[in-house]
Amino acid sequence: MRPVRSARPGFGLGLGLALLSAATFGTSGTFARSLIDAGWSAGAAVAVRVGVAALILAVPAVLALRGRWGVARRSLADVGLFGLLAVGGAQLGFFNAVRYLPVGVALLLEYSGIVLVMLWMWLRHGERPRRLTVAGAVAAVVGLGLVLDVTGDARLDPVGVLWGLMAAVGLATYFVLSARVHPDLPSVALACGGMAFGAVVLVGLGALGVLPLHATFGSVGFAGHRMSWLLPTAGLVLVAAVISYVSGIGAARILGAALSSFVGLTEVLFAVLIAWLVLDELPGVMQLIGGAFVVAGIALVRLDQLPGRRAAGKEPVPAGAGS
To answer: What is the pTM of this model?
Structure first.
């Protein structure tokens, strides 16, 4: 009889990295809002965010790759796909979705990417979701809808829905590729290469006139104060890109694509909390209830992955396994 596996090594570290990634990703809206209110286009804010972050990570990435250049060459396709879909595609899809849809609906569509992750793991790796995982997914999606307050009579523009689904594909790609790249490719190298490629794609689309790219360089309003545009830009780059992408990739490698994608849902909760603290946008009762649903959904998914339950079924594909 096959012995029961021990709990996944480093789960605490992986969970901590996932929550750090979600929290820092959750700051992006607050930082970007001050720039967009000052006249920046969303595309310009994203391009600066990932482009400058790639430059900052360039030296650490090169140092981490010493002696591993062969792995880097073999991973070029994954890095390019990460930059095209997980960075450029997700950002472009979301910011175009909000042109046609309420922000809450656009976010809900983007985070439907967790369902795509489950389907991918089922179809590609044979990891059929079991009852607790499905229940967790339902609870998390319901909670997300409550947090984002997507109820109402607004008509859903099909063009916006398509853009939102593109963002969902990008988000799912982020979690799947973060978990499946070669284990010898450092997380910082994947983050740097992916963001650099994504920045090139965004700037290229701007040069073709497909994506508006314009910025202003005066003072901006942030947290009730007037300050230089450099301060929120630094936060957008260092906190919402450098820390968030590197920690998120590291978390996906430890937790795997499915669980890390569920923990990633807490980004919305952190975004609401940060907006409350910085912008004085007080969360409502329904948002708090929705947050409890999201946490409960994550707990159910984690419970379904405990060794005792896994031993009764098929062994999961470990993080870092090829697709």
So the answer is: 0.74
